[in-house]
Amino acid sequence: MTVYFIGAGPGAADLITVRAQRIIAASPVCLYAGSLVPQELLAECPEGARVIDTARLSLDEIVALLIDADAAGQDVARLHSGDPSIFSAVAEQVRRLESAGVAYQVVPGVPAFTAAAAALGRELTVPGVSQSIVLTRVSTLSTAMPEGEDLRSLGRSGATMVVHLGAHRIDQIAEELTENYGRDCPAAVVAFASRPDEIVLRGTLATIAEQVKAAGVTKTAVVIVGRVLAAEGFPDSYLYSATRERTTH
């Protein structure tokens, strides 16, 4: 049998892949990440399915449930918010399943930062402005950042910066990025992206921290910093250029 690590998207229940929806509907066991996964998706579980909230479970307890389901010949839909490739804590589960000889597959989902960009109505890679995106976070008491991955070091490229899980450290983020981006650099914070209670804040590195505090945003938010957020007068992409040679097939 198979454990499916499913990206359940950023919050809106309809931002999930068709593949993921089909797997959920066919899996007799579903483990989901508490309030981060929309409750509407759980309605897709088949009648009589065992549905388990993992919010208060330890890693060992979660893995034990996955292994038990496999031993019973049951597929498992393991729902994670966003996309499993980014800050999902899937890696440590996969490591244990591989050690136990349990088959698994990863089903991609819509990551929070793309939902945040959609809410802002902005492309994060604009010709002549920025063609790179840095996806990162700030150090917390739970997980330290590797050496060389601090915001000051990462910001030297001037690329579009996306900081996850950092709303509670917005002062630190603004201060450390100002060194390379400047106080006037556009910055935005999107909390609960794609959900009914979505909050969108726009400003600069000089003003965004106060906006975040005034809005009471402390978690489930994405911080985006870069000139792309207010880019104007940039060159058109070569993709649709009239000078580009095109074939007929």
Question: What attributes does this structure have?
Answer:
single chain; 249 residues; alpha/beta; Cobalt-precorrin-4 Transmethylase, domain 1; Methyltransferase, Cobalt-precorrin-4 Transmethylase, Domain 2; 2 domains; five-stranded parallel sheet; five-stranded mixed sheet; 8 helices; 10 strands; cobalamin biosynthesis; Uropor_MeTrfase_CS; methyltransferase; Precorrin-4/cobalt-precorrin-4 C11-methyltransferase; S-adenosyl-L-methionine
CATH architectural name of the largest domain: 2-Layer Sandwich
Write out the strand line-up for the largest beta sheet, numbering strands in chain order: 3-2-4-1-5
Radius of gyration: 20 Å
Do you know the CATH topology of the largest domain? Answer: Methyltransferase, Cobalt-precorrin-4 Transmethylase, Domain 2
CATH class of the largest domain: Alpha Beta
**N- and C-termini, Cα separation:** 42 Å
Largest sheet: 5 strands, parallel
Helix content: 25-40%
User: What's the pLDDT, averaged over the residues?
Assistant: 94
- Taken in chain order, the helices and strands follow as EHEHEHEHEHEHEHEEHE
What is the number of independent domains? 2
Number of E strands:
10
Tell me the overall shape. globular
